[in-house]
## 1
Amino acid sequence: MCQKIKIVFLVVLAFRSISFSAQEIPIEFLNMNLNTNEAKYSTSVLENEIAGVNTKHEILTNGLKEHVAIDHSFKTIYLFIKGNGNLKTKDKTLNIVPETIFLPNNVKGLYFTPQKNDTLHYIKITVLQTEIDKADIKTFPEDNINNIYFKKFTDCESYTEPIKSPQTTSRTILPNKIIPRVAMGTVETVGPDRVGAHQHPMLEQLFLGLTDNQTMVYADSAQIYFPEYTILHIPLGSSHSVSVKENNKMYYVWMDFFRDKKGEAWLKTHKKQK
């Protein structure tokens, strides 16, 4: 009897050990509903997931201005995901629409506002600039540093990749050589389709689910449902993939944060669409 209890106990211990060591995919759902008594909202998302990268979901309502601060210790990226607004520069006004990327770079005196009776939702990402980054950026084209970067996702350059099917549309929304060790893009398709399993231990990666995204993400033995307006972190070095069922949409932003400059060679797998 004691022998049987001992065996059962060991099996339970082994099962618990496997459960606790199993791969997890950290995910956070964005709050897309502002309380009626709130005019502005800001919260960290997946806090402390990636060293040197801070991600926030912010909401701005009609009548408020958001002044864009410049801090040379960081580089800042804005991903506008819902609502319409205006970005004011010294000499022009740019229209903000859903799925627009904006970087102030070294341009000062910028601010943006929601359009009348509208609400802006955006993801604000700040990336710490190391001393190596500060030296590296001096080699970048001046236009990439001293002008704002402002583009609708759909206006960005398309590329192909071996792990994706011909029916998938991929775009580079933030090329490298604008911020050291950072690149971003979108993946869009209708199921059934998938992004094949792959690994990239040279970079950390976040996914942002865009409007109507309804996919499954897999990382090693883990899997998780990935809907619209969520952010997840691909476990570093994991073999990961994405799938979408028939008539469902796959639509997300990938954000690559390379561990060093050499790792950017990974982007050579992206071939410009002819």
## 2
Amino acid sequence: MKKLQKGTYGYLNQNKKRAWLKAFLLLLGPFILLIAGWAASGTRLDVVTVIAVVLCLPGCNQIVHAIVASRYHSIDRTLYEETEEARGACPALYENVLTSYEETYFIDCLVISGRDAVGYTSDPKTDASRAGEHIKKTLKANSYKQNVKIFTEKKAFLDRVSAIAGHVPEEVPFKGDDRYPGLSRDEIILSLIAAVSL
């Protein structure tokens, strides 16, 4: 199975499966070592048991990652297809889980066009205005000024995406960024948001 990149459709479900598989494999080795040591020495009270327990630590850490990954699921296929149709040539990010010190924001889709960033969240726990401010602050900290609007209604989001895809985006002065050679401004903004997403 090809590994999906952050911001692509299906990433969260694949990430969840990979996290649980990795946890299983990391715990399988110490378990086999424990059983082999017990069979060889006839007792659990030996150094092999201590080694097996210590080797469980990375697997336990991976279980924590898998539990966090399990909280989020990939977006509905219909929403993905509707957004793909509406966005035209505008770049988009899907399945973004952004965290701040105060809370976590789940943004189903985010479409960029010039200075406009339009997003949609289906999560009733996500405060759309605070999520937009968080994205705006993250981009501003990296010297990119962006208008960000997060919608909680799918139809309003798709209408706005169609509107920005239907007109020529505002020309934004851009010199390029040494951290992201060869990327356009929109691609850099998507890369910055993907970098801070789980």
## 3
Amino acid sequence: MAELNRQEIERQQQLWVDNWAKMMVQIWKDRLSFYNIRCTGALMESFTEDVTHDGLAASIIFRFLAYGVYQASGVGYGYTHGNGGDLPFLGADYRHEHRLDVPRKVGPAWGGGYTSGFPREKRDWLNRKLYASIMKLKEAMAHMVGEQAAAVLCDALMDNRRFIVRNL
């Protein structure tokens, strides 16, 4: 009986983690739409999740274009690894000197769009939602493991009761 309960609880946990990973991707896509990060759609189409289970343990790997991290951080062209976040093109003096503070055409002559003239801002579609969702996953997993422990304990008590009743 205990083995059946453990198997069912393990199956429910695996199903919950699989659905959680799919929901995270959907939440991220919704956040990208909310922040209007979809010029080409490449970032939104790049999301994949890979969940592997090993008993009660699970490993979740999310993949998406690195460009998305730059959008969430408010950096992009001009950022180099190891510069400590010093982006001179975000400063007011630099922007005025190089006329980055006025709207201008970007892209090819026949298409493209216009800049706003404002410096880049963080559009954090990733970190806050990820942290909150991981905390929710942690709570759900703790609840499920608690249910499994309770089932094992109940089965052990029932076995002890049967043994006592049989030997009276």
